[in-house]
Amino acid sequence: MANFLRIRRGRIGPSDVGLPTGPGARRTPGLRREELAALAGVSVDYYVRIEQGRETAPSDAVLSALARVLRLTADEHAHLLGLADQVAGRTPRRRPADPRPASPGLRLLLESVRPSPAYVLDDVNDVLAANPEGLALMPGLGDWPAAQRNTIRYTFLHATARTLFADWGRVARNSVAHLHTAELTAPERTAALVDELSSASGEFAALWRRHEVWVKRAGETAFRHPSLGPITLTNEVLTPAGDGQRILIYQAPPGTAEHDALVLLAMTTESTRTP
């Protein structure tokens, strides 16, 4: 929590909150501690103790005031509250997720949405299951052992990813921001993945230090697929209640060129499966 607050304080300038900037440049970027404390309505000493990790039980009201001044998004605010629970040793607001295989029902759902590429992911984006189109949409993912398949690992470590994603930088940034949410629900597995990717990718390490937090929801992703060419798909995220697993589906409206491309992708996967 202390590190998160320090990073976010450094990103808010005086002008962002209506304070005069004064003459000359500041030695360090962002708000001063006393400025943040005053705007949040707490004493400087109390805020310093929070940021230094010496105050382990700030109230939700104080944290919400800090979130307001720091311009945190709803996802980032929830993340801050979760970090506070962790520091205080309280029961987390989200139940920690134990790794478990995808349920038969979710596997059946992957088949039912074909030819839309679909995946069952856990908190850290391990691929628990995928339909054939899902593996074909990300070339090379299926070549990895099942235990190694992870969409964030793929984004940063697989050579194909940089050309596959038309806006690789946005995909990479969003992936890391989403992984921060798993610090609360799967801390040990998150730490292991972060250590691995930080050692292998300086870009991942730099993005991780930004401590942006973002929960992946519906949107669009543009691909430059080696077989399909340029294709933009919408993505939907379905979250079954309480088990830490979610379903990611890429899709396109019937009758569009993108949907025709997915049908072609399905035909390709069937031809490779047929003896």
From TrEMBL:
Residues 30-77 form the HTH cro/C1-type domain. It comes from Streptomyces adustus. It comes from the Bacteria. InterPro entries: Cro/C1-type_HTH, Lambda_DNA-bd_dom_sf, MLTR_LBD. GO terms for molecular function: DNA binding. Residues 85-105 are annotated as: Disordered. This is Helix-turn-helix transcriptional regulator. PROSITE patterns: HTH_CROC1. CDD domains: HTH_XRE. The lineage of its organism: Bacteria, Bacillati, Actinomycetota, Actinomycetes, Kitasatosporales.
